Amino acid sequence: MSENSSAGRPRESVPAREAFFDNAKFLAIVLVAVGHSWEPLQNGSRTVDAAYMAVYTFHMPAFIIVSGYFSRGFDARPGRLGRLVSGVAVPYVVFETGYALFERWAGDDPSNPVTLLDPWFLTWFLPALFVWRLTTPLWRTLRAPMVPALALAALASMSPELGDDLDLQRVLQFLPFFVLGLLLRPEHLARLRGRRLRTAAPAVFAAALLVAYWAAPRMNYEWFYHDNSAQELGAPWWAGPAMTAGLLVCSLTLTACFLAWVPRRRTWFTGLGTGTMYGYLLHGFLVKGALYAGWYDHPWVHGPLGEVTVTLAAAVAVALLCTPPVRRVFRAVVEPKLTWAFSRAARTPAAGRTAGSATDDPASRGSTADDPAFHHGSGLPRVHHG
User: Fold this and answer.
1) Is 79 in contact with 352 (CB distance < 8 Å)?
2) Using one digit for the tens of pLDDT, what is the confidence trace for 270-296?
3) Neighbours of 356 (CB within 10 A)
4) Is 32 exposed, middle or buried (CB count within 10 Å of its CB: 0-12, 13-18, 19+)?
5) Contact between residue 83 and residue 367 where contact means Cβ atoms under 8 Å apart
6) Domain of 152?
7) How far apart are CA 121 and CA 252, in angstroms?
8) Neighbour tally for 317: CB within 10 Å
């Protein structure tokens, strides 16, 4: 008897994962880790400052745009709500607590509070993703959702009274990138494969580095974190909307160039792209640990050889954190199985899946569509960084 007949109906074929998205995830998480490793080297090297600003212009927007792209099919059905809780909310509670306790122990800061209302270090993206994805049905009902998203981002950038609860500044200021991702279709991403953009991308990145080199001693790089209003950064209120618009253009340009150069074929790191959640959530302990252990205190680290060494070490470390052995060890806290906590409707794999939905996109098979680590980024030494 054939498998199809034994099941009583034809078995659904599962399209293969698209290598492009796993490649993009891995390369982006490497940029995140490298950017974090550069933080203690800032203010001593103008070159590092320029590279840092250039990377921070696009690595979080790229994460968030693809996050929105894979959230297109979210419709708040029980199955998807269950995955949102187990894949985003629970890891946030675990790692927000873990980083706070690590800061108390390794950072010798017993006063550091354990709170879920004020995200600390790289955990801020988890509640932001939770809010964005939960509001996806609302954005998809609007005729022109980018208009209110941009308006909310601009208003947030000049509203210091928003406070730090759940990092609402970042939730609102990064919102346009998520909404843009919701509007994208596969044919839009396919246009990035054009020869013109691929040819122009190196020149665009070179120009961005030159501009960043000029701006490094003149500009407050905290604008790239999107976690403060203009007034909190010492600028007039109108600078908030102006910087929001200017950074949006720069971020989208560099994101397009980055994605244009992501390989479409399988590479040696394609498999590592399926484990970026682990690399993202765990690499902060290594970066913070190196800082607290005094490794950055050695003078040679702040020279050209030391800066290159730190960069390579960060890239290798985050790659190792994405490997299967590490994932097996930490799966219980990064991808917890919480079927016991949900109703039968939420436990049913088919719940929330309809033909032609975003979750049926071959690129979103496996954990890609619900992998929050693909969309994460952060920085040192506190919650600013993205």
Assistant:
1) yes
2) 999 989 889 999 999 999 999 999 999
3) 8
4) buried
5) no
6) 22-375
7) 25
8) 18
